[in-house]
Amino acid sequence: MELSAGIKASLAGRYASALFDLASEAGSVSAVEADLDKLRAALAESGELRALIQNPQVSRSALGRVVAGLATHLSLSPLTANFLGVLAENRRVGALPAIIRAFAAIAAAQRGEVAAEVASAHPLNASQLAELENRLRAREGRTVKLATRVDPDLLGGLVVTIGSKRIDSSIRTRLNSLAQAMKNA
Prior knowledge:
The protein is α+β, with helices and mostly antiparallel strands and 185 residues long. Helix content is 63%, strand content 14%. The chain has helices spanning 5-9, 11-26, 29-45, 47-54, 60-73, 78-89, 96-110, 126-140, 171-184, and strands spanning 113-120, 143-150, 158-162, 165-168. Helix 8 links the parallel strand 1 and strand 2 (143-150). It holds the Pfam family OSCP.
């Protein structure tokens, strides 16, 4: 399956593509995906870690020690740990969040999946998620992998983003449209 030129052309995409190729050759795509999920969670939980990987004043060797310690702490596979070392050596650890997103997109495309982000005003239960996944699968013609988040500002309804497409059925948007229509009337 052909990936978008945008992913391959970006710095993060080139690193993610190289990591995916290595993981494919080693038969460890699933393990690397799990490792990257752990890294994504660690970055989401720790503002200090996010600040550290973005700090240009941290030396390559210090950054190398940090990512080696992180790899040990998170029990990452040797391939992922080595990859983090390469990122530290090349001063590219700051691109890690974008690399993780690009790797996920590449892996999903190889499996014939499409990723969708769903924002809702309240958490969705399992049956609502299953129904949404079935409808999106029918619409897209392929498997849809959902990532959910709660956004109370929506008031109600959903905002679904699939690639560059956005389906906005939120109450906030409907109210804004109604307000705009009333202004123009």
